[in-house]
Design brief:
elongated; Creatine Amidinohydrolase; single chain; alpha+beta; 2 domains; 6-stranded mixed beta sheet; Creatine Amidinohydrolase, Chain A, domain 1; 18 strands; 5-stranded mixed beta sheet; 10 helices
């Protein structure tokens, strides 16, 4: 088991104190008496570290009207105090021993609670025990509260996203300068992981390499297929640095691409560029999806673009806002998300281009700076 955050990844204690206050106020605005947050990205956002997700209950009890409390196993207390630093002065830290009932410790801090938000990925066994003890309180998802807070990135968060995007660009530039033919997808994937770490990522989280017909599988798992001349190769890579994620996709072709693939790729490139250019505050998220999709449909490839255009990114690779037809919520300055249309001819080949874009006060900033032109590789 490993701690997910590091000291260098933490912001100042005042940042987390403000986040705790904002979360409590947001909970009250939803008529919630409290939020119960177990180890997760939400927990790390509020406290600055993410402990191991164990069978022992660790739970931040964030009351809408009182002081926050952190209920955790006694063996985790030294780690917690070390990680939160001066923030500990603003928390009631409640420890429990192996023979204690931690669920009682949580419920005693919520007398008379009528509506409580549970962290979206809380273990079922935790949620069920807490539900029984808090009855008749209504248990609801904490997600709408936490997603709204985490969705709008502060300047320091955008800086981290920009830094990790540059590291991903460096890895992409390096891999597309190497020879592809005669190497397996898995070998290229391992090499990308090495390059992500060498470029400054603290973890290399994924390196999708889909070659030939596998390039038409958006989430292909790299295998033993040997890359060869005439293959399209989709490279979708990313990792984490200082608690924030990268995610970028480029497409390469081994040798001289045929005219029909060049035509397909140019449509995709136009669609992706237009969608990036459409980003601005007040624009509904669905309009970014529609912008890319319309160009692809008009070129006759509509049925071959079968996923959403993008997803939010920050402390997790996938978070709010989602760039999809069903999302009519307007973009706001500080939203960070991918723009990644794809065209996939199943059984033949596919292509995708992905950049991370941040909505600014007057438009959008594309964080990934590598060329979106088709990479021709040996």
């Amino acid at each position: 088991m490993a701690l997910i955050s590091t000291a260098s990844a933490r912001f100042a204690p005042e940042v987390y104190a403000a986040r705790l206050e904002h979360a409590a106020a947001a909970a009250a605005a939803r008529d919630l008496d409290a939020l119960l947050i177990t180890p997760s990205s939400d927990y790390a956002y509020l406290l600055g570290y993410r402990p191991p997700e164990l069978e022992r209950l660790t739970c931040l009890v964030l009351s809408a009207s009182g002081a926050p409390a952190l209920v955790l196993p006694r063996l985790e207390e030294p780690l917690a105090r070390h990680e939160v630093g001066r923030l500990a002065d603003r928390l009631e830290i409640v420890t429990w021993d192996e023979t204690d009932d931690p669920f009682q410790l949580v419920s005693r801090r919520l007398p008379g609670a009528l509506r409580v938000g549970l962290q979206d990925r809380m273990w079922a066994r935790f949620a069920l025990r807490l539900g029984a003890l808090l009855d008749p309180a209504e248990l609801v998802e904490a997600g709408p509260t936490m997603s709204a807070l985490r969705r709008i990135k502060e300047a320091a968060e955008v800086h981290r996203l920009r830094t990790v995007a540059a590291a991903a660009d460096a890895a992409m530039t390096a891999i597309t300068a190497e020879r592809f033919s005669g190497r397996t997808e898995a070998e290229l994937s391992r090499r990308i992981n090495e390059l992500l770490l060498a470029a400054g990522h603290h973890s290399a989280d994924f390196a999708i390499v889909g070659s030939g017909p596998n390039s038409a599988s958006p989430h292909h798992a790299p295998g033993d297929r040997m890359v060869e001349k005439g293959d399209a190769v989709v490279l979708d890579i990313g990792g984490t640095r200082d608690g924030y994620c990268s995610d970028t996709t480029r497409t390469a072709f081994v040798g001289e691409p045929p005219a029909d693939f060049v035509a397909l790729y140019e449509v995709l490139r136009q669609a992706q560029a237009a969608a990036c250019a459409a980003v601005a505050p007040g624009v509904p998220a669905r309009e970014i999806d529609r912008t890319a999709r319309q160009i692809i449909e008009e070129a006759g490839y509509g049925e071959h673009f079968f996923h959403r255009t993008g997803h939010g990114i920050g402390m997790e690779t996938h978070e709010e806002p989602y760039i999809v037809e069903s999302n009519g919520e307007p973009l706001r300055a500080g939203d960070a998300f991918s723009v990644e249309p794809g065209i996939y001819l199943v059984g033949q080949w596919g292509a995708r281009i992905e950049d991370i874009v941040v909505c600014t006060d007057d438009g959008g900033e594309r964080l990934n700076q590598t060329s979106t032109e088709l990479f021709i590789v040996a």
